Amino acid sequence: MTPDTALPLIPDRSPHGRDASFLDGGSDMAMLIRSLDWSRSPLGPIEGWPQSLRTTVSLCLASNFPINIIWGPDNVQIYNDGYRIVCGEKHPASLGMDYKECWASAWPAIGEPFEQARKGETSFLENVRMFLFRNGYLEETFFTFSLSPIRDETGGIGGLFHPVTETTATMVSERRTRAVRDLTARLTQAITTDEVFQLTIDTLAGFEFDLPFVLLYEPDPASTGKPEPSYRLHGHHGIDAGASLAPQVLSLAQPGGWPVAELMHGMTAIQVPQLRSRIGTQRCGPYDEPPDVAFAIPIRRHGADAPVALLMAGASSRLPLDDVYRGFFDLLGAAFAAALTRVTAYEEERKRAELLAAIDRAKTVFFSNVSHEFRTPLTLMLGPLEDALAGADGSDELRERLVLAHRNALRLLKLVNSLLDFSRTEAGRAAARFVPTDAAALTAELASNFRSACMQAGLSLDVDCPPQRESAWIDRDMWEKIVLNLLSNAFKFTLQGGIRVTLRSGDKGLELTVADTGVGIPADDVPRIFERFHRVEGQHGRSAEGTGIGLALARELVLLHGGTINVDSQQGRGTTFTVRIPFGRAHLPPDQVGSEARESDMPALANTYVEEALRWLPERAGTGDAGSADAVPDRPRVVLADDNADMREYVTRVLREGGYQVHAVGNGAAALAAIRGGPLPELVLSDVMMPDMDGFALLAALRADPATAGVVMVLLSARAGTEARAEGLAAGADDYMVKPFSARELRARVDGAVALGRQRREAARREQALHVQMEAERGRMALRDSEAHLTSLYEQTAAGVAEANANGVLVRVNDRYCEIVGRPREELLGKHFNRLVDPEDRAENERRMMAGSPFELENRYLRPDGSTIWVTKAVTPIRDETGAVASVLAVVLDVTPRKAAEAELRAESRRKDEFLAMLAHELRNPLAPISAAAALIGQAYLDEARLKQTSHVISRQVRHMTGLIDDLLDVSRVTRGLVTLETSLQDVKTVVANAVEQVRPLIESHRHHLTIDLDPSPACVMGDAKRLVQILTNLLNNAAKYTPAGGRIALRTRVDDGHVLVEVEDNGIGIAPELLPRVFELFAQAERTPDRAQGGLGLGLALVRSLAELHGGSVHGASSGAGQGSTFTVCLPRAAERRDQEEREQIQAMPAARSGLSVMVVDDNVDAAEMLALLLEASGYRVAAVHDPLVALERSRTLRPDVCLLDIGLPGMDGNELLAG
Length: 1221
Description:
Elements: H1 28-35, H2 51-62, E1 67-71, E2 76-79, H3 81-87, H4 99-102, H5 107-118, E3 123-133, E4 138-151, E5 157-166, H6 168-187, H7 193-204, E6 214-219, E7 231-237, E8 249-250, H8 260-265, E9 270-272, H9 276-279, E10 293-299, E11 309-315, H10 323-390, H11 396-427, E12 435-437, H12 439-448, H13 451-457, E13 460-464, E14 472-474, H14 476-492, E15 498-505, E16 509-516, H15 550-560, E17 564-570, E18 574-582, H16 602-614, H17 618-621, E19 637-641, H18 645-657, E20 661-665, H19 668-677, E21 683-687, H20 695-704, E22 713-717, H21 722-730, E23 735-738, H22 743-796, E24 800-805, E25 810-813, H23 815-821, H24 825-828, H25 839-851, E26 855-862, E27 868-879, E28 885-894, H26 896-924, H27 927-937, H28 944-975, E29 984-987, H29 988-1005, E30 1009-1013, E31 1020-1023, H30 1025-1041, E32 1048-1056, E33 1059-1066, H31 1100-1110, E34 1114-1118, E35 1126-1133, E36 1158-1162, H32 1166-1178, E37 1182-1186, H33 1189-1199, E38 1203-1206, H34 1215-1220
Parallel strand pairs: 13-15, 19-20, 19-21, 21-22, 22-23, 30-32, 36-37, 36-38
Antiparallel strand pairs: 1-2, 1-5, 3-4, 4-5, 6-7, 6-11, 7-8, 9-10, 10-11, 12-14, 15-16, 16-18, 17-18, 24-25, 24-28, 26-27, 27-28, 29-31, 32-33, 33-35, 34-35
Helix pairs in contact: 6-7, 6-10, 7-10, 10-11, 11-15, 11-16, 12-14, 14-15, 14-16, 19-20, 27-28, 28-31, 29-30, 30-31
């Protein structure tokens, strides 16, 4: 069955529906199978399907695992929801299709196991690669599946059971991971960029299922330096070079169809679509259909403006292009970029090493050449100097200068010879002559040259060189330089203790040891100690001078002997150098072995080393001329620091001749001590390189100390160049002189620096004087500002402030203080502050003042108008330098309003207490008759007349108590804003009638005469009818209670200017003038009289005012005094009269049929519940009384009463909650 002849998705109305129970279920496939017309398929209608097929399909649909059922000779397939995903876009047409036809593209992989299963043999295959046409293209997939035969009712093979698991994602992911892993591993072997390119092509060629083609482009050398770089094809796979997709050169002008411009500026891979039309019929990749999408990846390196390579890779036409596939290209690009970066860095490092080696060779040649060139002028200098010394006429000054020049010329010759020896040795051109030598005698003789120097330095020199059993084959000149360099190094860095030189015969050769107790070598520097030009930074020695090639030269000379040199050192404990030279001559070059040694000038060479060492000793340097005869006090003082003795002597002599007194020292630490220990010098002249403390450290110490920060300092250095000078000036030096310099230049630079220092000191003195003046003026201004600020605070503070002297006399007050006490400043100043205090408070005030401690106190002050005010004051005594009280400062606040409020609170509290007492009285009064009436009712002989009378008494007293409680509740609700008015248009006449009707019994009982005078004009207001009646009944009740029996009460209404006024007037006891302002307050009440049986709670008028204000009106009272009666007037806003157009229907509520109605009463007060139940039963209702809310909830479900009377305040569950339940 082809897709064109797929089963129609139409409802099947055939009777098989009743036999399709095996398709019951909510899965999509079950519903789809039920909806198809299977009568048009080879399987026929569902009701005709064999039981074996029904059972198998039922099991298939019940499983979540992808399963396909292949049935019958036509291989009709029926599958479940899990298998539907495998079908892709073939679904739903694939349902009911021939399995062979549906999966024809995969038949090369699944055909054989299918046929075996048809023969009854179960097949199981894992991760089989096959191509499925299920999503519009031929797709590479991997599946693990089995094909098992299904027996039908006849015992034959009715169909196949075909569960599958798609493993495409796993297999493809593993293949891509292997590609990235192999690429990364193989690229680690590359050491050139060409190898990186070639290995990348070779590796990726093995993964053409994911990468149909790969192109690698490298920068074209022809475009180097041009603004627009171009790239040439370096390697390719899967497509021929020169094809439309693989041009030999790419550039912005000739992009070859690739996004070159975007690659020049981009950082990530760019997807390039629609390649198939450009490839055409060319073979590209492993499949017949060429790729249609590729990725162009720029390979970048940090710091490069343009990509260092371009990687173009095609995407398979038989795989979906998802995010995982795109990430695969990013990983390839990253691996290629990392390898290219590593190899490029390696190549650059190799080129750098080759360049450094060339530079090193050139430097060695230069040193060799320059050493030779130095020797010629040195020979011409030393010869004349020696002749001049031999022919000197005895002038000490001239001879001293010649000796200085000759000594330093010899030192220069030693340095030149060392450079020449070193350059020759490194270049392998050292001319050695190895002969049998008594190494012990030679070594002992060389070491003895340092004995005098060691004695002068306070060091011990121990030479232990006994005769050896055989002679050593050595070059005498080289051995002398080895020994002298090691001894010179030991002497330089040993400040105390001693030096030991030993020579021994070992098992295989001669062993020379030079040990010292010096400063030692830091552990980090020990491995580099024999490197040429290496110097240990911050090392404390006798001098900071040196070339850094002495030990390097010694090592090279030892190596020429076929020996070794080692060092063992601990910082602060000393150093030991050990030289080992093999016996015999077998290890030596035959052409350098002889029987006679060359002529040696050992004494001259040793003297050069020893003389240089002696110049490091401080004794030879002197201590300056601070105390000499020519140290004239008025000469400018200069401190000179240089570790070279000859330089110290030369500079000292030149500066003395220039009129300076010089204090010369050998290092920075001694210079700093000389500067701080004597008068400040006008100039410090310091070498940069010195032991202990160099010139920069000395400069930093001077600038950090305020006492020496202004001292002029000039640095001396052999380092020439603009950078060296800038470094010195940036560090804070005033000048920087580069050696060599002439005497004239030295004097001129020193004269200028001294003049600069004097100008600087003069400027500093003037600046200091100006600064003092400015500070003084700033202080005066600050004092004025402070005084002004204090005065402003003093006057503007909200509190009263007063200052009195030690005698209590006021000397200063602010305006607020005058305002509080009500007196002008002129009247207060000069008066004793205690005169303002109330006489009753003066003694306490005076006692506190005499104590002399800060205090706070509340006093009464007398004002000029005779009134008294309350103040609280904080008093602080102010003491002078002797501790005595010089004045007193008082801060005063007027607390009269607070005191009045406190008094009012006390009055309110008293009124509350009186009200509570009155409330208790008013509530207890009705209880007595009620209690008596209850006792009478309990007597059996009570007749009906007395029973009615007793009942009336109880009812009357209950109504009285109810009125009291209602008033309390109304006041509570009004004061808390809980009253809601049900406003409507009200006729005041009706309100008056209703109020009079309610009060008439009370008026008649007191035999009062009531007159009513109503304004004939329409009088309507917007209001709550009940509350308006309550206002008038309260006023009428008040009039009736406070008017003696037989009195007169008048009620009048008036309509005036948009208001309706209602007046209640009586001729009763009236209102006292002092009570009239408080008559509308809570609990306010006139004095009771014995003839008033019902006094009330004093809430009526307060409630009247609150209700009137809620209606937007007001109320006020008037009385001429006690016994003169009173008048209360209520004023309410008038409303326009409204007349309804329709006749109002008069509806009279028909009495409900009481018979048969059930009522449930719920109240936790047993007596209340029982009495209410008796009353309702007497009225014809069926009543159930319940006292617990939970019981009531349960009984309501069984009784189902018509009405429930619920108490709100029930325990455990209130009335509202019970109603909701």
